[in-house]
Amino acid sequence: MQNTLRGLLLLILIGLVAVLPFFTTDYYASLAVKIMIYALFALSLQLLVGGTGLVSLGHAAFFGIAAYFVTLLTPDTGAGNFFVLLAGALIVTMAYAAVTGALALRTKGIYFIMVTLAFAQMAYYVFHDTKVGGGTDGIYLYFRPELRIGDWTLLNIDNSYVFYLFVLGCLLLSWAFLAVLMRSRFGAALTGIRVNEQRMRAAGFSTFGYKLTAYIIAAALAGVAGFLYAAKDGYVNPELMAWEQSGLVLLMVILGGSGRLWGAIIGAVVLTMLQELFQSQSIFGEFAKNWHLPYGLAIIALVALLPNGLTGLPEQLRTRRARKAQLRAASAAQDSAS
Amino acid sequence: MDPIIFLIQCLNAIQYGLLLFLVASGLTLIFGIMGIINLAHGSFYMIGAYMAFALQPLISQYAGESFVLTLLACVALAAILGYFLEWAFYSYLYHRDHLQQVLMTFGLILVFEELRSLLVGNDVHGVPIPAWLQGSISLADVMTYPIYRLFISVVCIIVAGLLYWVLTRTRLGMMIRAGASNREMINSLGIDINRLFRIVFAMGVALAALAGAIAAPVSSVYPGMGQSVLIICFVVVVIGGIGSIRGAFLAAMLVGFVDTFGQILFPAAAGVLVYLLMAAILLFKPEGLFKQG
Amino acid sequence: MKKTFTYTALAAFFALGAAGQAHAVVKVGFMLPYSGTYAKLGEAIENGFKLYVQEQGGKLAGQEVEYFKVDDESNPSKGPENANRLVQRDQVDVLVGTVHSGVAMALAKAAKDSDTTLIIPNAGADAITGPLCSKNIFRSSFSNWQPGYAMGPVALDKGHKTAITISWNYAAGKESTDGFKESFEKGGGKVVKHLTLPFPNVEFQPLLTEIAATKPDAVYTFFAGGGAVKFVQDYYAAGLNKTIPLLGSGFLTDGTLEAQGESAQGLLTTLHYADGLNTERDNAFRESYSKNFPALPPDVYAVQGYDAAQLLAAGLKAVDGDVTKKDAMRDAMRDATIDSPRGTFKLSAAGNPVQDMYLREVQGTQNVNKGIAIKDLADPARGCKL
Question: What was the ipTM of the complex prediction?
Answer without folding.
Answer: 0.84
